[in-house]
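Q&A FORM
Asked by: J.P.
Topic: structure of Condensation domain-containing protein

PROVIDED:
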Amino acid sequence: PASFAQARIWLDEKIRFDPEKPQVAIYNMPFVYRLQPGYTLSIKQLCHALYLTVNKHSSLHTSLHFDIEKNLLMQRVITHEDNHKNNNTFSIIKTTHETDEQLNEILRDEKRNPHLFDLAQGLVFRCHLVYYKQISSNNILSDKDILIFNFHHAFFDYPSMNIFVHDLNQAYTTGQLLYDDTTNLRYLDYAVIEQQMSMTGASMFWLDALHDYKLDQSLSLPFDRYRLANEHRTGRGTSISFDFGQDLSYDFLTQASSNNISLEYLALATYYVFLFKLTNGENDFCIGINTHGRYRDELNSIIGMFVNAIPLRCRLDPHLSFHELTKHVQDNMINCIKYSYFPLQRIL
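REPLIED BY: S.T.
REPLY: Here is the structure written out as tokens.
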């Protein structure tokens, strides 16, 4: 079977996006690399290293399909026999650019094009070589060229990139990648174990934690424009960065250190107070956070999609001191993390 995380992504793409209207991919994960000045890369060695790395990690050549009889989303590893019948399980694309505008357009396409991958065929990874001005005739990538590794999020998360780069580097340097497929835990095994886990305790915890909370009710926040009820979801988003300044940053670090609390918990408590003020005294909040989902050491060497989102509910008591609130937030989050393996779709 597919994992719970894969099922969420698959359903989101199949159901929440209208195929009749233009789509923007939100599950493409491109990673862009450029060589350090003076260095070169052998395309022949890179292709061989990619083959070894993809062959080691079965999640990079696995398909997703819905089994109507079982009423279950299933995953299947694409084998060498399948490759003889079809094309390779990953593609290497070569293009050129001369201007920054052209390069930016290529990067935008890698990030937003919804047609780059085919989950039903197991095409979940691609390598894009972007040469400066012209494709190399001697199969060498220079420091003026760009290398893009792009993955579909259903089979890949951010911690997976460290594993991918480590194995790719070893395969490129040595020309081989040793592993024992009979003893190593695979992502497929993780999905089976996940399905067989007892969820009773976690289910009771989340039922109690979210009792009487209306998850479908939006928080009353100030906004800069009205959103129509039937407005099509584009998937577009943005991010805003700002600098707290040296003095405030120092005070923030001092507060965390002197009270023996992590920066994460302190930031979360600060965010809850910010929402309290922004909503003119609302004191029952529920926000979502992502957890890495690798709750066993054996999972740290597997490429795959392990991320789970969990709701963090916090009831603020206006009479608490900020230190007491921070401790409350810390205890609450520690308890929630214990049951973070419980799939979000069962909570909702």
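FOLLOW-UP: The first strand starts at residue 28 and ends at 33.
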